[in-house]
């Protein structure tokens, strides 16, 4: 097979596409197989070599945090919606992400003590602040509910998610916990 027939090596021009493919593959495989899925499987699923994976993400933790940052970007975009009900949608998506990847979230939560410059808690507060203020102003959320209470509720729901016996039980238990919490949030 000639080089032209194989498509050739695009080198640095492929870097952004490779990074996106690696993040997509990591998200899917972390959710499906857990955080300890072989990195070679992620590279294979992304259609790149392991050297490309390590060039973008020197460690498994770097890759995990990059996927987690994509979650924050998605949540930030949701939070920018000016609609009063954006708060409920942001929280619902946070919970969905939590349920989709319990083990993965567990890793990131545990890594907070290892990564000294971790800013996830601050990012979470920034994401929630605007939508929560709009929900309170519209009378959709009780005036005494603050970002700290929401973060605590999310941690409690996370605890419910991590202690479930299986996926079906996890979804049912998380839905029940979310219902209890959101009932308390309403005026």
Automatic annotation (TrEMBL):
Residues 38-57 bind DNA. Keywords: DNA-binding, Transcription, Transcription regulation. Residues 16-75 form the HTH tetR-type domain. The keyword DNA-binding applies. InterPro entries: Homeodomain-like_sf, HTH-type_TetR-like_transc_reg, HTH_TetR, Tet_transcr_reg_TetR-rel_C_sf. It comes from the Bacteria. This is TetR/AcrR family transcriptional regulator. It comes from Georgenia wutianyii.
